[in-house]
């Protein structure tokens, strides 16, 4: 249509790209098999030490952000994990659903301006992470 495309502010563009990286598993994009992050390989994992698992994922996500979002540097990822429980009523049945909620915050510096920035809370729901 020869019309300009919608634009957004730099921080919003970076936030959207971070979200895309978080939602993409490695190998999912044909143009770059290294694009995405490792978190989707961890769904349904049996975890023996939750703190070690959390540290590994934080480090992996920070590396993915540094490698794939060149507008950010000094990236730090903070993960919080909790167990929300939902109750749904369908007809006369009461159904409960328990999943792990993973809240991800990304902190870094915008390369162009050296401005510190924080992108608080991207939320993902995972299968129950067992600590067997």
Structure description:
- There is one protein chain.
- The protein is of the alpha+beta class and 132 residues long.
- The protein is built from two helices and five strands.
- It has helices spanning 10-23, 50-68, and strands at residues 72-82, 85-90, 93-98, 100-110, 115-126.
- A three-stranded antiparallel β-sheet has the order 1-4-5, covered by helices on one side. Strands 2-3 form a two-stranded antiparallel sheet.
- β4 (100-110) and β5 form a beta hairpin.
- The longest helix has 19 residues, at 50-68.
- The chain is globular, with a radius of gyration of 18 Å.
- It starts with 9 loop residues before the first helix and ends in a 6-residue tail after the last strand.
- The mean pLDDT is 85.
How do the strands and helices of this protein lay out in sequence?
Elements lengths: L9 H14 L26 H19 L3 E11 L2 E6 L2 E6 L1 E11 L4 E12 L6
Antiparallel strand pairs: 1-4, 2-3, 4-5
Strand content: 25-35%
Structural class: alpha+beta
Strand tally: 5
Largest sheet, spatial ordering of strands = 1-4-5
Order of helices and strands: HHEEEEE
Overall form? globular
The level of helicity is 25-40%
Arithmetic mean pLDDT: 85
Calculate Rg over CA atoms. Answer: 18 Å
Oligomer status = single chain
Q: Which spans of ≥5 residues are poorly predicted at pLDDT below 50?
A: none
Number of helices: 2
Task: Give a concise summary.
The protein has a 3-stranded antiparallel β-sheet, with helices on one face. It has helices at residues 10-23, 50-68; strands at residues 72-82, 85-90, 93-98, 100-110, 115-126. The chain is an alpha+beta fold and 132 residues long.
């Amino acid at each position: 249509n020869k019309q300009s495309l919608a634009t957004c502010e730099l921080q919003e563009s970076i936030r959207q790209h971070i979200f895309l990286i978080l939602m993409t598993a490695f190998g999912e994009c044909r143009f770059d098999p290294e694009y995405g992050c490792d978190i989707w390989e961890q769904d349904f994992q049996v975890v023996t030490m939750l703190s070690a698992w959390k540290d590994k994922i934080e480090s992996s996500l920070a590396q993915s952000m540094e490698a794939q979002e060149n507008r950010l540097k000094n990236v730090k990822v903070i993960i919080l994990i909790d167990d929300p429980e939902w109750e749904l009523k369908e007809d006369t049945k009461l159904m409960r659903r328990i999943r792990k909620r993973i809240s991800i915050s990304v902190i870094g510096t915008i390369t162009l301006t050296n401005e510190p920035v924080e992108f608080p809370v991207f939320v993902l729901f995972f299968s129950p992470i067992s600590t067997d």
